[in-house]
TrEMBL record:
Hydrolase in keyword set: yes
Biological source species: Microcella putealis
A Pfam family the protein falls into: PriA_3primeBD
Name of the featured protein: Replication restart DNA helicase PriA
Transmembrane segments: none
DNA sequence: AGCACGCCGACT
DNA sequence: GTCGGCGTGCTC
């Protein structure tokens, strides 16, 4: 008999009733293989039902009073669930009223038998498949450029004995490109993260870098490959197939430091002696997880930092309102370039010259002349909006979006012919007088005509035209007389930077509704500006007002602070947390009742949704998070268990959905 | 989810 | 008397 014959097991099941540790006896025959972290098969109830699960840990005595069943099978000896990742899943699930196994489904990739067998075969007694870095490799990694941070800040971030508060940084990255070597150009902020991470690995600790999309990831991978050996890099994204993903995951699992790079799920990867966790552009919606329970990569990074006491850096050209909040409560300290070093984005009028080739494409004269001139020396970027329908109601006099008189939410029509209603609280025809001109006449907004690449290209005779959008994104463009037409977020990189950048659809982007319009526009435009050569003009076409002013004077950070102050006044995220509760009217009513009794909690709605259900948005102070999650979780379990109404439960809870307050309540 | 347990109507 | 209906509850 061994000392710890009881296995505590997490069943791989989305059922909230099963989201706890069940105890099983470990038979003598499996004693050696049944180590913490392995995948298991266990019986669940009688009748030969078998469930998959993870062995979380082993204990000497069972706390369960009843008869224990035995583990059926140890799937493999690979210990894929580390204690750190389990704790992360548990805490994140509790915070979001979800299940740990839902989180682990994202954190632990599906098993690939061939790859796992090869890896297990190569694993030595120390839990590694290869050597640590050589002194020469360490020297290269220690010399990796980290242009946006001074050596003191880097030293503190690397120092495990430094005060935790000093090791949490919000970096507003300088808006310029740097050359990593071998003709690889990337934003200075991304290079900084790679440089920081390379030093961390050189010092014997792992680092995680999570970026929004694959284009950023390719830049990071290329830069990392110049400063670290391939063996020290674990790429954990799903973009190159399940096999490569699992290979990267297993590399991260080894007992030697790695630079773990990937998209949002990288923050949940295993890491040997985690020393740094870095997020790039945390305001990008791609960092918001789509799968249940929908925990944002930023929140996972914060939890991970708290657990591992590692360095934490949230870096972006344009800080998110969430980062701003963390700065204001004193949780993050800022590293910001001097205002004089911020890139100026010049607003220009929308007045179009009549006799220029730019007129047909409705490019204002000043912008067209700047672009034509710049084209002689290299590529020019024209950033455009994605096409899309926008069913908002605006002031007929000045065009400002109309707000709800009840909650200040956007007012729109759900479908053609319907009465205008508030997208957030559901009030019918609630429009308040225009906030800009006090007018009361209304009209539907028009989406604005979409320019074609052809039109834009013809405005610049003799130039090569390259189109880059989400479907056909170009990573890089060669120097030359080239017009690059790109939708926001899909702008290619040019070595040395664009010679001019025109932000053409600024008016349409700013007129979109949604809670984060200002944050998004600042992010899109400052990210594009960061791709320009140092002295190249960046022109914001056809927009004035506070956003344009902030960009012109290099005070975007102050504008985000003002934006956050507004949200605080209105009780909107990220000043408060939110929980979207969807289901049948009685289910939602029952779920809301106990949480609305708590201080610092209120709700918008419920409103009817298109599929006959109702939706309410609970708003809660951060301090109420534990209580509200606990109550809503109890409501989900109750709804799943009590099947009084013969139908399976439809109650859903989603915390901190970034789109909750946007115009997505229809459909 | 499944599957067993449990307390009320029509069958040999 | 008892076979079986599905509402209710549990899964180590």
């Amino acid at each position: 008999m061994t000392a710890e014959p009881i296995a505590r097991v997490l069943i791989d099941s989305p059922l909230p009733q099963l989201d706890r540790l069940l105890e099983y006896r470990i038979p003598e025959s499996l004693d050696g293989d049944a180590r913490p972290g392995v995948r298991l098969v266990v019986p669940l109830r009688t009748g030969g039902r078998q469930a998959k699960g993870y062995l979380v840990d082993r204990v000497a005595e069972a706390s369960f009073g009843g008869q224990l069943a035995e583990i059926s099978e140890v799937v493999s000896t690979a210990r894929v669930l580390t204690p750190e990742v389990y704790r992360l899943a548990r805490r994140a699930a509790d915070r979001a009223a979800g299940t740990a196994s839902d989180l682990l489904r994202l954190a632990v990739p599906p098993r690939q038998v061939r790859i796992e067998k090869a890896w297990l075969g190569a694993l030595d007694a120390a839990g590694r498949t290869g050597p640590a870095l050589t002194p020469a490799e360490i020297a290269v990694a220690e010399g990796a450029p980290a242009p946006a941070l001074d050596s003191d800040t880097i030293a503190v971030l690397r120092d495990p004995t430094a005060a935790a508060g000093d090791r949490r940084i919000a970096l507003t990255a300088p808006q310029r490109l740097v050359e990593a070597g071998h003709g690889e150009w990337l934003p200075a902020g991304l290079m900084t993260l790679v440089g920081l991470a390379a030093r961390t690995v050189a010092g014997g600790r792992s680092a995680i870098i999570a970026v929004p999309d694959y284009r950023d990831l390719d830049l990071v991978a290329a830069a990392a490959a110049l400063v670290l050996p391939g063996e020290a890099i674990a790429r954990v994204d799903a973009g190159r197939g399940a096999g490569e993903r699992y290979r990267g995951f297993l590399r991260a699992l080894e007992k030697r430091p790695a630079l773990v790079i990937g998209t949002r799920t990288a923050v949940t990867a295993p890491a040997h002696r985690l020393g740094l966790i870095a997020l790039w552009d945390d305001g990008d919606p791609l960092h918001a997880e789509q799968h249940a329970p929908g925990v944002h990569a930023r929140d996972l990074a914060l939890l991970r930092h708290d657990d591992a006491a590692c360095g934490l850096i949230l870096a972006a050209h344009s800080p998110s309102a969430d980062t701003q909040r963390l700065v204001e409560i004193g949780y993050l300290r800022t590293v910001t370039p001097a205002r004089s070093a911020r890139r100026r984005i010049r607003p220009t009028t929308r007045a179009v010259g009549a006799d220029e080739p730019g007129a047909r494409a409705r490019i204002p004269s000043i912008a067209w002349r700047a672009a034509s001139e710049a084209l002689a020396t290299g590529p020019v970027l024209l950033q455009v909006a994605r096409p899309g329908f926008d069913p908002r109601i605006v002031c007929a006099d000045c065009g400002e979006a109309v707000r709800c008189r009840v909650c200040a939410g956007p007012v729109g029509v759900r479908r053609a012919g319907a009465a205008p209603s508030c997208r957030w609280c559901g009030a019918i025809a609630p429009a308040a007088p225009c906030t800009r001109c006090a007018g009361t006449r209304r009209r539907a907004s028009t989406p604005g005509s979409v320019r074609t690449a052809d039109e834009l290209g013809r405005a610049f005779p003799g130039a090569r035209v390259i189109v880059s959008d989400a479907d056909h994104a170009h990573q890089q463009v060669e120097p030359g007389r080239t017009i690059v037409v790109a939708t926001r977020g899909a702008e290619p990189i040019v070595a040395g930077g664009y010679r001019a950048v025109l932000l053409l659809d600024a008016e349409r982007m700013l007129a979109r509704d949604g809670l984060r319009v200002v944050d998004d526009c600042l992010r899109w435009w400052q990210n594009a500006a960061a791709l320009a050569a140092d002295d190249a003009p960046v022109l914001l076409v056809g927009v004035d007002g506070p956003v344009a002013q902030a960009l012109a004077t290099g005070t975007a950070d102050e504008l985000i602070a003002a934006e956050l102050a507004d949200r605080r006044r209105l009780r909107f995220p990220p000043a408060v947390r939110s929980a979207t509760v969807t289901g049948t009217a009685p289910e939602v009513r029952a779920a809301l009742e106990p949480v609305l009794a708590l201080d610092g909690v209120d709700a918008l709605g419920p409103v009817d949704t298109a599929d006959g259900q109702v939706r309410a948005i609970v708003r809660l102070d951060y301090a109420r998070g534990v209580d509200v999650a606990h109550e809503l979780r109890a409501a989900v379990v109750a709804a799943a268990t009590a099947r009084a109404q013969r139908r399976r439960s439809t109650l859903r809870v989603r915390f901190d959905d970034p789109t909750a307050f946007d115009a997505a309540l229809d459909e």
